[in-house]
């Protein structure tokens, strides 16, 4: 048996009712000397003792569990949250309340709620709750304690049984966003060309149509504009490149959520063009940037799940562009996504 510290609180009015009922029945017995009234008094005493003992025994042995129907969902989607109760004893409780909470680890918000379930003898039961998440972040759904009554209802037993599950709500990636990746790819390519020593047309061996997977820096933007299709320069030997994205979060919670959502959609837009990306986010605890290499939808989701593991305050910092210059001096340019005038903004930033 698990060594639980059970807190017991009496239901005063119910106890007064039972005492009054017992006293009246006893008085009637002395008046009428009826054997059945005496048996009824004995039955009341036995029921009270059995009810208290069985309630305490149930509180010592009951097991509860919270399980989420998925570990990741899109914001606004509904998933089932299952609360399971296992009772290995013959005791029962008609009124069993679960004190529960849902905490957003990233934003630090918390909502409390309650659930009531009857507990039957030698039974395993469960209830599915529809859980709709309206805000992005990682949520920890926890059963903090169980409060049950004995079957007569004289006492409350506060049981320190805990169970938790987690689910991450990711931004919706298919929402319309006024973002055209082509211009930023051009700016990135030109910046890389100008920043690479010895980079000139003598390195170009041929020009051909763009094939998914080609590097950004090899796109010939002027010829592409004339030909109305992407043309790339074939080089003898060049290093690979990627789109670097700096995400700057605001102190405002709503704006930060918008920036996270906007960055998610921007990365999706580049991903549709098979562009390899590197997401940078400030890490105040380590006084550096946490970086995520993203080339697929799964890598993007995993990056956000990792971001949501720590509070938002850890990702906030001042003069992040200056920190990029100090910590990444060889980076030529990057796309900075942040908030300006109360809405999401983005700009190609020269790291010189």
Could you characterize the architecture of this molecule?
- The protein has 352 residues and is α+β, with helices and mostly antiparallel strands.
- The protein has two domains: 1-170, Immunoglobulin-like, CATH 2.60.40; 181-350, no CATH class.
- 31% of the residues lie in helices and 36% in strands.
- It has helices spanning 12-32, 35-61, 181-195, 221-227, 253-271, 297-307, 320-327, and strands at 7-10, 63-68, 72-74, 78-87, 93-104, 110-119, 123-132, 137-149, 155-159, 163-170, 204-209, 231-235, 243-247, 277-283, 288-294, 333-340, 343-350.
- The strands form four sheets. Strands 1, 3, 5, 6, 8, 9 and 10 form a seven-stranded mixed sheet that branches. A five-stranded mixed sheet has the order 15-14-13-16-17, with helices on both faces. Strands 2-4-7 form a three-stranded antiparallel sheet, with no helix packed on it.
- The protein starts with 6 loop residues before the first strand and ends with a strand.
- Residues 195-203 and 236-240 have low confidence and may be disordered.
